[in-house]
Automatic annotation (TrEMBL), chain A:
Keyword Lyase: yes
Keyword vocabulary terms for this entry: Disulfide bond, Lyase, Membrane, Transmembrane, Transmembrane helix
Pfam families, alphabetized: HTTM, VKGC_lumenal_dom
Membrane topology, record value: Multi-pass membrane protein
This protein's name: HTTM domain-containing protein
TrEMBL record, chain B:
Matching CDD domains: Imelysin-like_IPPA (cd14659)
Species for this entry: Aquimarina algiphila
Keywords of the record: Signal
One Gene Ontology term, aspect cellular component: cell envelope
Cellular compartments annotated: Cell envelope
Pfam families reported for this sequence: Peptidase_M75 (PF09375)
Signal peptide: 1-21
The Imelysin-like domain, residue ranges: 58-299
Domain of life assignment: Bacteria
Protein name (record): Imelysin family protein
Major site of localization recorded for this protein: other
Length: 454, 380
């Protein structure tokens, strides 16, 4: 009974609507930037139009590229960003953004990045939250705005951001990261040209310093942001950390996203001030007459339950790897969607042999015929890519050779976090005879070492 | 204090935008930039001046010598002159082993050393009423060193019969045609390289299109395809046994290099192996110690974890060369004879080379930080 009471008390707590509105504007701006950047680099053509083959997420093979019309998807996403920024038909805009952005991501898992996944699930969450009840065209046209929103609508975003950091920190608690300073050692060692600190890049103490401080940062930052006293300090850390990673590694817009997203931890007054300043700069005059106190969603309980369910899934999903035997970094079974960022460096190659069973003749496939360099790189180190590609090759060569009786065999060597390269896939297994799925992939050869930790 | 909170990200954004345009070269755009402080130009200069140029020039002069002997032999064919032509061909064939990796998979390489040579098509060419255009890629296996090997060593079963053949003009002409062509295409390849030499030497960034990157990749490809596969795996049938351990898969002795003078096959193989070591150790064509991949790896101090010990990658690669040396001792001069049946010694050589290929292709290339034309990544 007490718990129920506590929940009810919590559900009735409120936060400033300005916090969500400010978040909405920053989110929209960043997504707009990110999409324009993607377009300007010519990546739409390179990743979604040019390749003749796309790697699919399991169960999403129906998400196909639109070829030249993929630009329409980007156009939709960009228009919805504008809608999000302005708070114009917000619900429609954010839903369209979620759908178009997620569709694009599902076309080819080659481009999977944790931060794209973060944007997808964050935009899903935002579909349920009232980000448009103040400082938006929606409230302007309805001539009605709200000063407050239920506290949990703001907290839901905080939880999601906290999960990203904390889980990324948990994943760093492994023997490679902490006691071998890998893979940072590999990545930093080649950066000796870096201004000022370049001379340390090859030093062992520097690798360890970076590894340990990275892990501590990820684990503690959500809490430092939650506590009012440490918040300004924490934010400065956030900025420094992300600037540093941005300059060192090619991680695109992710640092910007995280820096802006963590602003949600600041107080409602601060966000109100931000909106006021923004309003003054843009010379906006508030004409909303009906300013009410608390916004309450019409289907309050249901929305709350959906958000809770969503967040619970986010809490549990990263741990699904425990259901698989073998080393997670080696098999990558349950690796994605778990905030495992910058954790491993896999180097190596995978080549395919087509064998004609009737004659015993065989030949090696030149991957360049079917895959671009990026796809080839991603395929070489990830078993689900390998089996998918093997089936593609099987279909292709059955037709070309007019021979149903062929097999596809793999030779691959992978070096994980600076270990000696090891054979990766069982070279004696015909991959046409295995199916992709959620079951453990028995045709991955065992990892002849151990990485302790989470 | 609280105002700063909004100023900082804005300043950061400005700073990041300025930073990212600077470093996009090394990370994302794939156009330029190396990150470490090793002088790659020094390395590419060494490849060109100490290996490519002297080896290719030497090949050119060996081919010119061969061409002279061919002229003398075809003018008045006899046993002594045949012996000279054969010896000259062998000399050129050995030098070729040092050249191929620098022209890997080029049209020039395919013209020079596509084997097994196609005897049927060679015969067609010889008997052709119209002049044959050897520039056609389908005619790769009718020319170059392997075709010369056939024409001088395999045309007939006895030397006397071979000499008799060269009484006929069409045989003389075809032999001269091939020999002259090798001189011509080698001269062209050398000149073409000279014109791009300076820009190549300075093209050392991490992108796939830089000369540095292309040559490292070609070195790996050469070691894999031209060395391991063509010289060892294909003739001995190692490949298929890997997949079908229980099925006896036949060997292919006809795929041995210099099939018609197979007593030379191991010598040619060892020359190629020597060239591979030269490239790694930075030994010049005239055997002086210069800069090679080894120095680069030493400079980076790259280590790999082997049985729980962080080992210098360079030390590991040196030990792999030791393994190849040991395995090489168990195969004898004539590969054709030795690949008639299953020969575990060849499998051992294959395995030893394979370990070297893996170490270079996976660990060393990674250490050099050669990016593929790349995009955002968060390391997963």
């Amino acid at each position: 009974m007490e718990i129920k009471q506590a929940i009810n008390v919590y559900l009735n707590k409120t936060s400033r609507a300005a916090t969500l509105a400010a978040f909405r504007i920053l989110f929209g701006m960043l997504m707009l930037m990110s999409l324009v950047r993607f377009l300007s680099k010519g990546w739409v053509n390179k990743f979604y139009i040019e390749p003749i083959f796309h790697f699919k997420y399991y169960g999403f093979s129906w998400v196909v590229t639109w070829g030249e019309y993929t630009y329409i998807l980007f156009f939709v996403a960009i228009i919805s960003c504008v809608g999000i920024i302005l708070g114009y038909k917000y619900r429609l805009s954010i839903v369209l953004f979620f759908l178009s952005f997620t569709y694009i991501e599902l076309i080819d898992k080659t481009t999977y990045l944790n931060h794209y996944y973060f944007i997808s699930i964050l935009s899903f969450l935002l579909c349920f939250l009232p980000l448009n009840v103040t400082f938006s065209l929606d409230s302007y046209y309805k001539n009605k705005s709200y000063k407050n929103v239920p506290k949990w609508t703001v907290d839901a975003i905080k939880v999601l951001i906290g999960v990203v950091y904390f889980y990324a920190g948990l994943a760093k608690l492994n023997s490679d990261w902490l006691f071998r300073a890998q893979p940072l050692k590999i990545w930093l060692s080649s950066k000796t040209d870096f201004p000022i600190i370049g001379k340390f890049m090859n030093d062992t103490w520097f690798h360890y310093l970076m590894s340990w401080s990275g892990a501590i940062y990820d684990l503690t930052i959500p809490f430092l942001l939650l506590i009012r006293k440490t918040r300004p300090f924490a934010f400065i850390l956030v900025v420094i950390f992300h600037v540093f990673t941005r300059v060192l590694f090619p991680i695109g817009v992710f640092p910007y996203v995280m820096i802006c997203a963590t602003l949600i931890f600041f107080s409602g007054e601060l966000h109100e001030k931000f909106l006021r300043v923004l309003g003054n700069i843009l010379k906006l005059k508030s004409k909303v007459n009906d300013v009410r106190n608390v916004y309450l969603p019409r289907i309050y309980r249901k929305v709350f339950l959906v958000v809770c369910l969503f967040l619970s899934i986010q809490l549990v999903l990263p741990f699904r790897y425990v259901l698989y035997p073998g080393e997670l970094f080696w098999t990558e079974e349950g690796y994605r969607f778990s905030w495992r960022v910058m954790l491993m460096e896999k180097a190596g190659y995978t080549s395919f042999r087509i064998v004609k069973y009737d004659t015993g003749n065989s030949f090696t496939v030149d991957n360049k015929h079917f895959l671009n360099a990026f796809q080839n790189k991603q395929m070489s180190t990830q078993p689900d890519f390998i089996v998918e590609y093997a089936h593609f090759l099987g279909d292709h060569y059955k037709k070309e050779l007019e021979n149903e009786n062929i097999g596809v065999f793999v030779e691959g060597y992978i070096s994980l976090n600076g270990r000696l390269s090891q054979p990766y896939i069982d070279p004696r297994v015909d991959l046409l005879k295995v199916k992709d799925g959620f079951q453990h992939k028995t045709w991955i050869l065992p990892f002849e070492d151990e990485i302790k930790g989470l | 204090m609280k105002k700063i909170v909004y100023i900082i990200p804005i300043l950061t954004l400005l700073y990041l935008v300025s930073c990212s345009s600077d470093d996009s070269s090394s990370g994302e755009g794939g156009t330029g930039g190396t990150d470490d402080n090793f002088d790659r130009v020094n390395l590419t200069t060494s490849w060109v001046n100490n290996l490519l140029s002297p080896a290719t020039s030497d090949l050119k002069s060996k081919l010119e010598t061969l061409n002279n002997s061919v002229t003398l032999f075809t003018d008045v064919p006899d046993a002594t002159k045949l012996a000279t032509v054969r010896a000259d061909l062998f000399e050129a064939y050995k030098v070729w082993q040092h050249v191929e990796m620098f022209f890997y998979a080029s049209g020039y390489s395919l013209d020079m050393n596509t084997y097994p040579t196609d005897v049927t098509k060679i015969t067609e060419n010889i008997n052709s009423a119209t002049p044959v255009d050897l520039n056609r890629t389908v005619l790769n296996p009718t020319q170059g060193l392997p075709a010369m090997d056939y024409l001088l060593n395999g045309l007939e079963s006895t030397d006397n019969d071979i000499i008799t053949r060269y009484g006929e003009a069409k045989y003389k002409n075809y032999l001269k045609l091939l020999s002259e062509r090798m001189v011509t295409i080698t001269t062209t390849a050398l000149n073409d390289f000279e014109t791009t030499k300076d820009s190549n030497i300075n093209s050392v960034d991490n992108s796939i299109s830089s000369y540095f990157s292309r040559q490292v990749n070609d070195f790996v490809q050469y070691t894999e395809k031209s060395f391991r596969e063509a010289k060892i795996a294909t003739p001995s049938g190692t490949r298929n046994r890997e997949i079908f351990p229980t099925i006896s898969v036949s060997t292919s002795p006809n795929f041995v290099e210099s099939l018609y003078s197979p007593e030379n096959s191991k010598i040619l193989y060892l020359e190629a192996y020597d060239a591979i070591q030269d490239f790694y150790y930075g030994r010049s064509y005239t055997n002086n110690n210069t800069v090679g991949l080894q120095e680069y790896l030493q400079n980076l101090g790259t280590t790999i974890l082997i049985n729980g010990n962080e080992t210098l990658l360079d030390d590991y690669i040196i030990s792999l060369f030791g393994n190849i040396d040991a395995a090489n001792n168990n195969i004898t001069d004539n590969f054709y004879q030795q690949t008639q049946d299953y020969n575990p010694n060849f499998d051992a050589v294959f395995d030893a080379i394979q370990e070297f290929v893996v170490a270079v292709k996976s660990n060393a290339i990674n250490a050099f930080n050669l990016t593929i034309d790349f995009v955002d990544s968060d390391g997963d």
